[in-house]
Amino acid sequence: MILVSACLLGLNTKYNGESNAHSLLQKYCLWGRFIPVCPEQLGGLPTPREPVEIIQGTGQEVLRGRSLIKGEQGEAVTGYFIRGAQETLKLVKMFKVSAAILKERSPSCGVNHIYDGSFSHSRIPGQGVTAALLKEHNIPIYSEEDLNEERLKELLCQDQGYDKS
Ligand code: SF4
């Protein structure tokens, strides 16, 4: 099975109550191999919710207690993000997940980049909290921005244990 950020599949889990619907992922959802997950909802946050960023750090640093996640007004929500990552890891173990496709730049799901905590749309290299935890447990993580149809089919075929040809 492949874990996918729920918002990419069209579920309205995003902080503003909308989705990040991704037509290619929605198309291949019909193969029945995707598990939609929103770590922020699993961690106990409501939808809609305030947009937040990791402050001066990455998901790895949040997991080690070296960085916080806050909204623009300074309210800290770090614990919800850590809980959401831990709950997501439970799903990974429950369903023998082979890979995860996650929404780029999210403080939970970002794979290659996240925002820098200045709320100015500035990016830094690094992962969100859930992406970092999955990586630490050797789950291959992919950004939706890195996938084309060919690569996605390869992942799906690997997940099912056969050659796509
Ligand atoms: Fe999407 Fe991940 Fe944000 Fe949930 S936490 S809305 S799945 S990017």
TrEMBL record:
InterPro entries named in the record: 2-thiour_desulf
Name assigned to this protein: Uncharacterized protein
